[in-house]
From TrEMBL:
The keyword Cell cycle does not apply. PANTHER family: ABC TRANSPORTER ATP-BINDING PROTEIN (PTHR42711). This is ABC transporter ATP-binding protein. SUPFAM superfamilies: P-loop containing nucleoside triphosphate hydrolases. The lineage of its organism: Bacteria, Bacillati, Actinomycetota, Actinomycetes, Propionibacteriales. It is a peripheral membrane protein. InterPro entries: AAA+_ATPase, ABC_transporter-like_ATP-bd, ABC_transporter_ATP-binding, P-loop_NTPase. GO terms for molecular function: ATP binding. Keywords: Antibiotic resistance, ATP-binding, Nucleotide-binding, Transport. The keyword Transport applies. Residues 8-237 form the ABC transporter domain. Its main location: membrane. It comes from the Bacteria.
Amino acid sequence: MTDFPFAIETRGLRRTYGTGADAFEAVRGIDLQVRRGQVHALLGVNGAGKTSTLEVLEGLAPATAGEVRVLGLDPVADRAQVRRRTGVLLQHSGFVADLTVRETLKMWAATVTGARPVEESLEMLDLSRLADTRMRGLSGGEHRRVDLACTLTGRPELVVLDEPTTGLDPESRRAVWRLVRDLRDSGATVLLTTHYLEEAEQLADQVSIMRAGEVVREGTVAEIVAGHPAEISFRTPRRDLPLPAGAEVSHDGGTTVLRVADLQPVLTDLLLAARDAGVELAMLDARSATLESVFLAVAADRAEIQQGAPA
Ligand SMILES: Nc1ncnc2c1ncn2[C@@H]1O[C@H](COP(=O)(O)OP(=O)(O)OP(=O)(O)O)[C@@H](O)[C@H]1O
């Protein structure tokens, strides 16, 4: 690879744990391209290989095979350079329990060049009120905000966030979303993992969905959702109601569920058929595919009515 227009680029990245008969391939040849200045969400169920991938990008572990460039550099060979320009939020972190929040941030700031002033970090993460509280006295969510403040202390141009909002209440989660948007607006690149699909919908310019060590979908949320079936559900005692063509029909208790590639014409036909038959469709619900419904289908490797383009 000679040219690196991306903040992160991998080609054929593999990561295997163990050797011989015990070897387990957690990452199976992924091509990942994270554009500069974008928020990119890496999604997947537990064990899909997200953290194993991030650890390679962070230079914490070498790739078993494939090419990896982070800010155009090799994350292992050029680790010092990459670390200086990157902020990493791990899933778990350790702090000295007896230090206050301010002391913790000060200590952290002393380890990076061009550090953000501690008071600015406190304010940015809404921690000013807690500046003199000892770390051991913080709630899980407050602790996570200190984690984030440390990650951003060095004003990184690339920010890697492994489940940044796990354990945060809805208000704090939204505050982190604002922060991520601000980071992007200031020109930083953000790669994040999350199990909250709404978070990916809210934040991500690009999404990659991993399953069993492979990237199985990628694109914008709109691209990923396009072509996936919408769902119409209703209850009616009339089993003889003529149902529109082009729908995959199932029954869940007393609820009829139609999975359809194209919502509007099928819904129109259904409503007309119901009117003509004088039938009331109780609890009628019609919804387009969401990132969540696609994610669940992809995670379960479910066949789609009209398959979205695989990555
Ligand atoms: N040190 C290890 N030795 C052997 N297998 C491992 C090791 N670390 C992870 N794995 C396995 O690799 C696979 C991918 O794990 P990984 O932690 O990368 O998934 P993940 O997508 O980050 O999951 P989560 O959402 O739970 O964090 C899993 O099957 C896991 O059990």
